[in-house]
Amino acid sequence: MGLLDGILEKLGLKKGAKPLSEVSAPTDVQAKYMQDAQRSTAAVKIDVADVVTRLDGMAKKYPMKLNWKESIVDLLVLLDLPHKGEDLKELAVELKCPDNIITDSFKRNMWLHKAVLQKIADAGGKIPPELLK
What we know:
Layout: H1 3-10, H2 28-40, H3 51-61, H4 72-78, H5 85-94, H6 99-102, H7 105-122, H8 129-132
Helix pairs in contact: 5-7
């Protein structure tokens, strides 16, 4: 399973994937988020296609300020997925990042962020157009 599959799975957008609230062994942050959601709603499940609402809610509960709307690293951290340089390079290869930017970490990460958001949208996630530019 590639990192993109992990992202889609965590968001409940991969066929047969469990929504984030049902993933086994959640991190402490995810567990706290799920407990808060259970207290505030009758059902934990959020519309799996409403990615922005889900991620914004998770980010509000996260102990560090994360800007998932602009940073691929922050998005991966929020989803509790690997986010080191090697992981990002593997994701870039998986998504067929252009060779001329794959070695430039800044340009690669900017490209990756847009590419991942587009893949999320392609999988049925609601992503506002301004985040895909």
